[in-house]
glucuronokinase
Amino acid sequence: AICKIFYKYCKAKNIALHGGNFTLSYDTNIPRQTGLSGSSAIVCAALNCILDFYKVRHLVKVEERPNLILEAEKELGIVAGLQDRVVQVYGGLVFMDFNKSHMDRLGHGIYTQMDISLLPPLYLIYAENPSDSGKVHSTVRQRWLDRDDFIRSTMNEVANLAVEGRQALLAKDYAKLASLMNRNFDLRRSMFGDDALGALNVKMVEVPRELGAASKFTGSGGAVVAFCPDGPEQAAQLEDACKKAGFIVQPVQVVPSLLTEADPKI
């Protein structure tokens, strides 16, 4: 699918591609169906390989690459948005502003890279027997398309949390960050309801909260990111509690952006 989308893009942009054949294969260590964007990660990696194979990395703007990945996934019937693809393309820590007029005019958001050292220690929690994150999107997406007032206003509030989150990180106000993380899940829960989220997913959020840690989904369910504002002792308690609940917990390792001067930006 990504080969097809890439070819269409290059044809539309008059980007010449040299001849030659290639074979694509992949391996991944991303746990399946955990809301960790495993499918888009594979497509993103494939796009990077194709850019290098045809030596056109300098001709495909960074801002447009997430759209290509998303279009490829749509070809496969995957319901998704741009957020995961943006951070996979950019790497590191990215603030995303999906300003409507900007999106309508250019087809992509305003993406701002941030210093990863601003992040506090975070922990990834996921279940060994995950749920299907794709099912969680269904009714809310349709209600959004139907212009449901509650869904639209709540989604706007979720978007505003990102703005506040950026401010909290820049100020290193981690108490505020913890509050925003919890609020994010509470808003999602109010839109989707526990039946759609699933008991296992809700429990993954509640286990850290019972210890005073902040937690929210990494995506649409299947995995949770947690922050322990009280430090290492609280983190150790989190690890014990997760093990007792049957969850896997790992420290988050944020990789800096791998973009170079060869990756043009608008």
In short: The mean pLDDT is 92. The chain has two domains: 2-114, 116-251. Residues 39 and 73 are 8 Å apart (CA to CA). The first helix runs from residue 2 to 12.
